[in-house]
Every structure is written in structure tokens, then in C-alpha cells.
Automatic annotation (TrEMBL):
Family: Belongs to the ABC-2 integral membrane protein family.
Membrane topology field: Multi-pass membrane protein
UniProt key word Hydrolase: no
Keyword Repeat part of the UniProt annotation: no
Compartments, record wording: Cell inner membrane; Cell membrane
Residue ranges of every copy of the ABC transmembrane type-2 domain listed in the record: 45-286
PANTHER family named among the record's database cross-references: INNER MEMBRANE TRANSPORT PERMEASE, TRANSPORT PERMEASE PROTEIN
Transmembrane segments: 44-64, 119-149, 155-179, 191-210, 261-283
Protein name: Transport permease protein
Species per Swiss-Prot/TrEMBL record: Paramicrobacterium chengjingii
InterPro entries reported in the protein's UniProt record: ABC2_TM (IPR013525), ABC2_TM_bact-type (IPR047817), ABC_2_transport (IPR000412)
Keywords for the protein's UniProt record, in alphabetical order: Antibiotic resistance, Cell inner membrane, Cell membrane, Membrane, Transmembrane, Transmembrane helix, Transport
Length: 294
């Protein structure tokens, strides 16, 4: 009796993880299109809400934190500095939050058919990026009005900042998205992280304020945070050229980029990639019970 060759078969429902999204691009496109088209369905203002939310955030932070509390002291062109940080935090918060709830939100599909489950968090991150683009358009317009001159280095840094946030939020989304299926407390924990996100990056203040008060080890941890590096990349891309620090002979009190930013950037990208690896491992561990837990 001959044994059948089973080398071409594999256990149903098991794929190659995140790598499967490259072979399921059509499904990914369908999920993204569905989320984008249904986001503002039956809404009077539609896509205008993508502009209204960041505009409201900017006004509140600028008036309260900048003008009333006075955190704008020592920061030239504070509105552009502030808004370039807000849009980065918004991208992170929306990507992270939506990816965490993506499996539960699509439980009907998860329970009925098999498709790579990683498609759901990845699709929500892409949708968040699509909604992030109108905010970048506003930022560019405001920066141009305040004297911003685009440079190749600045644009490259801005693109790297976007990539860093997408990688980091995808990794966290895989991790917490899987946990959220088995333990719904994960979603509440994510909300706490989002609350602190604005304050764990130099958005409402400058990095030098922490450098003046924190020990070196704490500053290094803070500056290696992917969110911090992404915000600083956006500052260099859209704000720095409009500040006095960009002059040939900057004043002694000018706000300059962190001197070790390239090193911090390498560490931040390593953290983001490591987060994706850990997130994928945890996702694969919990994935086998998704249908039962949902």
C-alpha cells in the first residue's frame, strides 16, 4: 500500500501571517474600500469631518496650551509646530484604535469564511492613513502660508515619519487586536494609551523641556519612542525651515533638532519592526480561537 503525497497540503486556516496580505491584495482592497465608503455614510458633511476634528483639536490646544498656559514660549511659528505634531498623533491613535477593534467589528466574516485575519487590522491602518491625508494637505497649506520652502530632505523625513507610525500602529494593532477578541479589557487599555499618546511626544512642548529636567537615561527612552521620532521628523519636514533655528547663525535660544535624532530613528524603527514580529506571534497564538471567542 502506497502512502499519499501530502506535501502540497497544509492545515486549513493557517497561512503565512502578515505576508499573506501581499497575495490577497484584492481582498485587502475590498476591505479598505468598504471602510472608506461606509465611514461617513448618511452623514451630511461627509469628508468634511476629516478636517473638522483636527481643526478643533488644534484650536483647543493652541488657545489653552499655547496662549493661556504659555507653552509656545521659545517655539517659533508655534501653530505649524503644534499642528504637525497633532496630525501624527491622530494617525497613530486612529490606526491603533481601529486595528484593535478590527477583528471584533468583522466577526460575521471571521466566523463564516476563512481569509487571512491579518487583513482586518492592516486594512484599518490603511483606512486611517487615507483619512490622514486631508490633514496633511491642510498642514502643507498652512506651512506654505508661513514661509515654508519644501526640501527633499524634509519631505523624505516626513515620509519616514508616516512609515514609522504605520509600522508601529500595525504591530500594536495585531497584538491588541488579538487580545481584544479573548479579553475585551484590551480595548479599554488601548484607550488609556491613546490618552497618553499626545503627552508622550513633543507635540504641545519642545523636546528640550524634558532634556532640561529628565535624567539622560529617561531622555534616551523618550526620544527612542517611535511616536516621538515621527513627530520630530514632521517638525523637521514642515516646521523647522520656518523657525529661527534654520538661519545660518541661529540665536542661542533657538529650538534645534535633537542632536542624536538619526540614532533615535534607527532604534525607533527597530522597535516598530519588533512590535510587528511580536504582534504577529501573539496574533497567531490567539487566531485559532477567534471563531469560538466571537
Amino acid at each position: 500500500m502506497t502512502n499519499a503525497d501530502l506535501s502540497d497540503f497544509r492545515t486549513p486556516g493557517r497561512g503565512h501571517g502578515v505576508l499573506d496580505i501581499f497575495t490577497r491584495r484584492y481582498l485587502l482592497k475590498v476591505l479598505v474600500k468598504k471602510d472608506v465608503t461606509t465611514r461617513y455614510r448618511n452623514s451630511i458633511f461627509g469628508w468634511l469631518w476629516s478636517y473638522a476634528k483636527p481643526a478643533a483639536q488644534f484650536l483647543v490646544y493652541y488657545l489653552v496650551m499655547g496662549r493661556i498656559i504659555g507653552l509656545d514660549r521659545g517655539i517659533d511659528n508655534f501653530p505649524v509646530y503644534l499642528f504637525s505634531g497633532i496630525v501624527v498623533v491622530n494617525l497613530f491613535n486612529e490606526s491603533f484604535s481601529n486595528a484593535t477593534t478590527s477583528i471584533v467589528s468583522n466577526k460575521a466574516l471571521v466566523k463564516k469564511i476563512y481569509l487571512p485575519r491579518e487583513l482586518f487590522p492592516v486594512a484599518t491602518v490603511i483606512v486611517a492613513f487615507v483619512h490622514f491625508l486631508p490633514q496633511v494637505a491642510i498642514l502643507i497649506a498652512v506651512a506654505l502660508l508661513t514661509g515654508w520652502i519644501p526640501s527633499m530632505l524634509g519631505l523624505v523625513l516626513a515620509v519616514l515619519g508616516m512609515l514609522l507610525i504605520v509600522l508601529f500602529s500595525t504591530g500594536l494593532g495585531l497584538f491588541f487586536g488579538a487580545l481584544n477578541v479573548a479579553f475585551r479589557d484590551a480595548q479599554n487599555f488601548v484607550e488609556i494609551i491613546r490618552t497618553f499618546a499626545t503627552w508622550t511626544a513633543p507635540v504641545l512642548y519642545s523636546w528640550t523641556m524634558l532634556a532640561d529636567k529628565a535624567p539622560a537615561w529617561l531622555l534616551n527612552i523618550y526620544m527612542s519612542n517611535p511616536l516621538t521620532v515621527a513627530v520630530e521628523f514632521f517638525h523637521q519636514g514642515f516646521w523647522f525651515s520656518t523657525s529661527t533655528g534654520a538661519q545660518a547663525n541661529p540665536p542661542t535660544d533657538a529650538l534645534l533638532p535633537p542632536p542624536l535624532l538619526p540614532i533615535y530613528a534607527v532604534v525607533a524603527f527597530a522597535i516598530a519592526i519588533g512590535t510587528i514580529i511580536i504582534g504577529q506571534l501573539v496574533f497567531r497564538r490567539f487566531e485559532r480561537n477567534f471563531a469560538q471567542d466571537l
